[in-house]
Amino acid sequence: MTQRLPLTGAALDAVSNADHPNHAIACAAAVINPATGQAVTYAATFEAWMDAVDRHLVTQIGLTHQCLTDMTWRDWYDADLSPAEAAGLAIDTERADMGAFAALLGD
Question: CA-to-CA distance for 48 and 25, rounded, in angstroms?
Fold first, then answer.
């Protein structure tokens, strides 16, 4: 079980939304990874987590989650995947699906 702790001060500043530099993500939380003992920062609400996922997706492929096929976003959030991990998994899934589609077309 992960332990969620409120962020304050510099830790909260570290999760500031780059698109809105004057607006820190107030619902951020620190999670202690039991395997490593290190703090992992992510959004404490599903909506804020999805916003972070979208920022990763836009940075990497120029699209938001709404442009991709349906993924199990809520399951990934509940499984404590970071937004970066979820974005990477979505991109990998999308690439695999497109590869299978291209194979059907004979490319």
Answer: 8
What is the token pair recorded at 90?
A: 């979505």
DSSP result, the chain: --EEEE--HHHHHHTB-TTSTT-B-TTEEEEE-TTT--EEEEESSHHHHHHHHHHHHHHHHS--GGGSPP--HHHHHHTT--HHHHHHHHHHHHHHHHHHHHHHHT-
**Backbone dihedral angles phi then psi of residue 42, each to the nearest 5 degrees:** -155, 170
Structure tokens at 99: 């590869």
Q: Which residue has the tokens 């974005």?
A: 87
Question: Is residue 27 a contact partner of residue 44, using CB atoms and an 8 Å limit?
Answer: yes
Dump pLDDT digits (tens) for 13-59. Answer: 444 344 443 333 333 444 556 677 665 555 679 999 999 999 999 99
**Which amino acid appears at position 52 of this protein?**
A
